[in-house]
Specification:
Elements: E1 5-8, H1 23-31, E2 35-39, H2 48-53, E3 57-59, E4 73-74, E5 90-93, H3 104-113, E6 119-122, H4 138-158, H5 175-193, E7 199-202, E8 210-213, H6 215-218, E9 232-235, H7 249-255, E10 263-266, E11 291-293, H8 309-321, E12 327-329, H9 339-354, H10 357-365, H11 383-404
Parallel strand pairs: 1-2, 1-4, 2-3, 4-5, 5-6, 7-8, 7-9, 9-10, 10-12
Antiparallel strand pairs: 11-12
Helix pairs in contact: 1-9, 3-11, 4-5
Organism: Sporidiobolus salmonicolor
Binding site for NAD(+): 132, 214, 218, 238, 267, 331-334
Protein name: Saccharopine dehydrogenase [NAD(+), L-lysine-forming]
Amino acid sequence: MAPLNLWLRCETKEFEHRAALTPTTAKKLIDAGFTITVERDPQRIFDDAEYEAVGCKLVEHNTWPSAPLSSPIMGLKELPPNDSTPLPHTHIMFAHCYKEQGGWVDVLSRWEAGQPSGMLYDLEFLQDENGRRVAAFGYHAGFAGAAVGALALAKQVASGGEKGRLGEIKPYPNERELISYVQGQMGAVQEKLGRKPRALVIGALGSDDIVKWDMAETAKGGPFTEILDVDIFVNCIYLTSKIPSFVDRASIDAAGAERKLRVVVDVSCDTTNPNNPIPIYSINTTFDKPTVDVDGYVSTSCDVDATGGTDRLRLHAYRLKAGPPLTVVSIDHLPTLLPRESSEAFSNDLLPSLLTLPQAVADRASRQGQAIAASEAGSGPERVWREAEALFWTKMGEMKAAKKQ
């Protein structure tokens, strides 16, 4: 079997600094017989020279469309939108199209147009024999999400009338520096509020100031009034089906002036998913604009003008009565706040599966363009790729059915 050339493409998503393959894991793959091609990428946290030093071949930025079809194309985030160009390569990436997210039909149609050779191995759905993801950014996503939520809270409560909003945030070199900065900001929040700020995290279990929930605590079904009694709510669940909303406008309205909740951090970020359990916002935020106000829960100026001063004063009083301003953080690539550490952890977890990729690619060569069922995945070490292949064909079928509706 000829050596497999794995092609690491650049990331085109704005503010994305992570890499699916780090120089450390690239070296291990090269030692195992792979050849590694790396596109130059000025926004990646790892310098091009770091890859070259371990034996990778460097090529120009964003040249993967001209790569040999035999080279799997590896990246992290989705490809740029509004592009219908066929995808005849094998792609390894987070495509964000398997849970009927906005535009999912158009995304999968590109692989349909790229048959018989096109294939998507979606990183979100690479699972071991126990159904657990082989690699995920979960830890660093939750870590970064909690940090951004704390910074958003600090900026808000420190400003007059809580009108302040968090500005552009940039990557931190390591966890230590991020923790140190956030701790300082939380001290200022405590002084301003006259109490310790509290957070609730759904997706784990807690302490007095961090309330951690998991499946048992959410089994009764939402909305949960407990969420409205904390300053920051962090959602870290992995959504697979429709569930009752954790918090919605009706529950917020019912809490009225008693609501303490000021910041929601949706780490899961199922913004365009029809089953999103936090239906109070509709857009993804970004590193340059980390928060979005929830309409109807933001204080307005009470300056009196000549045309309608009384009405404006009444509106201001009503909104204050409804509780403090409410904002949402919905950044869909939070781990890039700690790009080097999160990339190393993810890539290292993915490495055992990557080592079996050559065999999986060789096996698929004999059935190019032909679907397989999950029952045909087998039990060998490369099973993870065959199972992902079967899922691809299932989703292709769903996409074709959706086109006919």
